[in-house]
Design a protein that fits this description.
about 100 residues; mainly alpha; 2 domains; 2 helices; about 85% helix; rod-shaped
């Protein structure tokens, strides 16, 4: 009787070891599943750097630069218009002189 009892004890011990091994394997499988799920749950990262919002000082600087640029463009436009008027007057005067020379005055 001791022989079947020893066999039963050995089988029970082996089953306990196998059960522990199976539990460790199942835990490893669960950890692997969690490791695979984490990247899927996170939002996809984009390839560029996000810039922080501009401060009010930066916006004031940008506004001042735009205003100065606008005034510069306005002065440049006025200078071009004045040059155009001067060239027109010069052309009229030269034409008048040319006509006077052609008439013999």
């Amino acid at each position: 009787m001791s022989d079947p009892l020893a066999k039963a004890e050995a089988a029970a011990a082996e089953a306990a070891v196998n059960t522990a091994a199976v539990q460790v394997a199942l835990a490893a499988v669960e950890l692997a599943k969690l490791a695979q799920q984490k990247p899927a749950e996170q939002p996809a990262a984009c390839g560029h750097q996000h810039r922080q919002n501009r401060s009010s000082g930066e916006w004031l600087g940008i506004g001042a630069a735009v205003c100065v640029g606008g005034v510069g463009i306005a002065f440049a436009s006025m200078a071009i218009a004045i040059c155009g008027i001067a060239v027109s007057i010069l052309a009229l005067v030269l034409r008048s002189i040319w006509k006077d020379i052609q008439k013999g005055h």
